[in-house]
Amino acid sequence: MIALEGIEKSYNVGSNELRVLKGIDLNIERGELVSIMGSSGSGKSTLLNILGLLDFKDQGSYTLNGQIIDHPSEREAAHLRNAYIGFVFQSFNLISYKTAVENVALPLYYRGISRAKRNATAMEYLRKVGLDQWAHHLPNELSGGQKQRVAIARALIGNPEIILADEPTGALDSTTSLEVMNLLKEIHKQGKTVIIVTHENDIAGMTERIIRLVDGRVQHGGHV
Amino acid sequence: MEIWSTIQKNKLRTFLTGFAVAWGIFMLIILLGTGNGLQNGVTQEFNDDATNSIWIRGGRTSLEYGGFKPGRRVKITLDDLHYLLRNYPQMGYYSARINVWGARVNYGNDFGDYSMRGVHPGHVVLEKTEMLQGRYINDFDVSNDRKVAVIGKLIANDLFKDEDPLGKYVIIRNVPFMVVGVSDDAGSEWEQRMVYIPITTALQVFNKSGNIDQIMFTTGTLPLQATIDLSERVKRDLAQRLQFSPSDPTALFINNANEEFARFMNIFNGIALFVWVMGIFTIIAGIVGVSNIMMIVVRERTQEIGVRKAIGAHPSSIVLQILQESIFITALSGYIGLVLGVGLLELVNKYLPENTNMFSNPTVDIRIAVYATIVLIVSGALAGFFPARKAAHVKPIEALRYQ
């Protein structure tokens, strides 16, 4: 599903060049549930951005679902994100003035699907995450766990191959974290590729494989 | 609509922004309407006489010339008119004019004292006289010294009441004249109490000296400078014929209505330009306001724009969203300003007293409204442009990371 070879990425910090990724080789198969771990500064966020087509590599090759991703235009990248990737963020990133159902429906808006159809589909996905009762509430009327479930529904609605979750439980207590992780595992069982970036060992422990990043490289021998 | 939710979220801010634009358009419309009213008023004043005419009147010399002392009256006659007609083919409608003061007009037992003019047929164009009934003085009347008269509508009211005056005879200073027409004039009531008779008849019956008071003619479509040159040349020719110094300022008065009209038109063009410039600057102030607000909107919504991009919004759809909001706010509030401005003008127009000099029909026409709408949409797009570009450049990673 995902193949990275010799991915390098550096940022200019003032006059210095900061090398964040120093040659990442990585394969993630279709339907895997993996976690990416690393201390802060290990480059895991950068790697996530490159995987999610939010940022682009300097060197190396990235193949997503058989397509070589080589500095696509913003338009192409937006299209690929919409088609292949569902994002789940630590801070949920729901749009505050839209109701739960409108938030979930948003990716379909960018596919040009009619309002009636996308709202109906959004209700269906809210039901899957158990929040159909809350469909017409604004995000600030929901608890943290509920917000994250709305965000997961939003990530799923476009039927993407890959779910990228950036510290999905970072803002949640342990009980709620467990619920969210169970939901992500559920999604994985339905055949999606789920990639979770985390720094928490017990979260990583619930995945099939842990990829550890140390100083911009993958540390080998990470199977649990 | 996407727009509604964002606008409803920030009602006060949106209102204040819109207010700036609405006020700008409102002021532009009021200024334009006032300028138009002024122009219409003055143009109406000009409606009294043909605006492309030259009027010649004899004066009194103030310089010695050819052995004559100053202070001599310069007398013009029909011969001078005929001389001009022979030498200046560019003259269009023409007329000589004699004023006869205090003409007592009798009809049956009624009578009144009115003013009378001896004229050529062309006078009807030069004075912009309108015919309500019958006809004006014609060439046949002039060449046969016929005793026919055209009477002003107020004379017809005074003497004939409900009777039809055409074909009836009135007695003017003991001479019978047949009424052939009833006239009206936008100039004044004085001109609506005027009797017109053929110039030749007037010379024969009421003015034995042979002198005429004025010569007037139209200049067709000659451009302004050509009419100025023409009146200069006419003055030089007549100076030679009538023996006065061409540089004598009081011997002959030549009034070129073209010049006066052009001067007024220049003033109005100046006013119109001024109004547009003021209006545009007011609108620019509004645009800057909208642009500022949209800038804040983009900053506040950086995270939202980041999310939208992450889930598949193209940069163009983000630009479109910001532009849409900006155009929507400007167009709607501008439209409100437009409607209020036009409404106020209509109200003023409705309650404006009749016969207000120099001011009439202070409205803006549909063309101005269309221009204003185009200006609004363009300004909305301009106001949104920089914020939208900023929004398009939002990097989703940064937007989602740093909040």
Give me the Rg of chain A, rounded. 17 Å
Q: Oligomeric status of the shown chains? A: heterodimer
* Gyration radius from CA atoms of chain B, angstroms: 33 Å
Q: Uncertain runs of chain B with pLDDT below 50, 5 residues or more?
A: none
What would you say this structure looks like, in words?
Chain A is of the alpha/beta class. Chain A has a single domain, classed as P-loop containing nucleotide triphosphate hydrolases (Rossmann fold, 3-Layer(aba) Sandwich). In chain A, the strands form two sheets. Chain A has a six-stranded mixed sheet with strand order 6-7-8-3-9-10, with helices on both faces. Chain A has a four-stranded antiparallel sheet with strand order 2-1-4-5, covered by helices on one side. In chain A, helix 3 packs across helix 4. The longest helix of chain A is centred in the C-terminal third of the chain and has 16 residues. In chain A, 46% of the residues are buried. Chain B has a six-stranded mixed β-barrel with strand order 3-4-9-6-8-7. Chain B has two domains: 185 residues, no CATH class; 126 residues, no CATH class. In chain B, helix 10 crosses helix 11, helix 10 runs parallel beside helix 13 and helix 12 runs antiparallel to helix 13. In chain B, 39% of the residues are buried. Chain B is elongated and about 105 Å long. The two termini of chain B are 27 Å apart. In chain B, a hairpin with a 2-residue loop joins strand 3 and strand 4. Chain B has 403 residues and is an alpha+beta fold. The interface between A and B is medium-sized, with 27 and 23 residues.
